[in-house]
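> run fold Urease accessory protein UreE
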Amino acid sequence: MLTANKLMPQGRGLAPVLLKRAATIELDWDVRQKSRFDATDSQGRQIGIFLARGTAVRGGDVLVAEDGSLIRVIAAPQPVLRITHCTAHGTPFDLTRAAYHLGNRHVPIELKPDHLKIEPDHVLADMLRSMHLIVVAVEEAFEPEGGAYGSHEHGHGHGSHDHHNHDHSHDHGHSHAKGPKPLVLAPELLDDHGHA
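> ok
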């Protein structure tokens, strides 16, 4: 079995021709949210994926196998509930309310400007319908939000630890300065980036 333990988010930095030639694997969200799983790629190869704990694989990401070959990940269509607002009885703001209530229940949600998607759940579907939303069962790719603490745009996960007490001295090649630090906050309330 071939192993892959490197992930290139959205294939950044790779030439389009390399992405086009890469083998593919089509995976649903249940598999892509795991950091360790087995899959068969489009060339029939068995791939063992071993990523850092807490890593979620997104559609468009590229895995690098131990032999240097590339495997492009495709988000497989799967059963989901597509939620839209009712144009006759509501407004687009109803989707914001729905996202708030689903978020309070820690439900994975894919957020789009005109709809939400969640995994099938008849109790949640009934709740959303009672809020005058339209809920339809469909088969589509599912890419839920990662959460505020699940990942960081610098390309490394922070997991669920105290964000105020970690060393972040490595160079990102850009500044985190967003203006002067507020003088009203105690220093222990600011992390070493100046975030409150």
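The first strand starts at residue 2 and ends at 8.
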